[in-house]
Amino acid sequence: MPTELQIKKFSYVFTWFDQNGDGWLTRGDFEKIAGLFTALADEKDQKNKIAIKTAFMHWWSLLLKAEVGTPDEKISKEEFIRIMESSVIAPENFENAVGGIADGLIGALDRDGNGSLSREEYVRMYDALGVPPATSSEAFKRLDRDGSGQISHAEFRQAIVEFYLSADKDAPGNWLLGSMDAFK
Asked: What is the DSSP secondary structure assignment for residue 117, as one 8-state letter?
């Protein structure tokens, strides 16, 4: 059973991914959100674009495999939360779905090859994904654990893991998409 904190986070992700706002997740929603993420990569960066899209489509396939009672390939928020806990964040699936997106993003955005994201790169990324700059700027401060002014690949991965897997309300990774107070 997901914790209250995970339910809050998964509900936020559901709302973010529900690109047409109809209260259901569909393949079209996943393709659209994957398109927003892949658009962050340089036009010629097919490797990371493919990695991100593949991870999103893997995530969608996990949702469909675990779906119950909705034959038209629509996932409700309640189903999404249940499937996130039972399947997507399971160790055998998490890396290929959520981890694959994180790695593709870092690869796409780390254009100077230093293995990290600057505040500007981080804020620009989330702004393009619909997260306001004020929110992502504050999140950056909390996720830059070593105070270097950069979020390393390891720090970003740690934030992803904490956001999806941690029940600790004080974990810095909970700030991945902004303040938990903003989540409904």
From this structure: E
Please check whether residue 176 is in contact with residue 163, taking contact to mean a CB–CB distance below 8 angstroms. yes
CA angle 35, 37, 43 (to 5 degrees): 75
Number of independent structural domains in the chain: 1
Please tell me the predicted confidence (pLDDT) of residue 10.
Answer: 94
In the prediction, which pLDDT does 183 show? Answer: 62
pLDDT of residue 157: 92
Q: What is the CATH number of the domain that holds 16?
A: 1.10.238.10
Cβ burial, residue 149 (10 Å; 0-12/13-18/19+): exposed
| 46-66 helix and 100-109 helix, angle to the nearest 10 degrees | 160
* pLDDT at position 177: 83
pTM for the model: 0.89
Query: Which regions of the chain are under pLDDT 50?
Result: none
Find out whether 66 and 86 touch, Cβ atoms under 8 Å.
Answer: yes
Q: Give pLDDT, residue 115.
A: 85
What spatial distance separates the first Cα and last Cα of the chain, rounded to whole Å? 19
DSSP 180: G
* Domain that residue 63 falls in: 4-182
What pLDDT, on the 0 to 100 scale, is given for residue 140?
94
- Residue 96 to residues 15, 51, 113, 159, 182, Cα–Cα distance (Å): 22, 10, 23, 17, 28
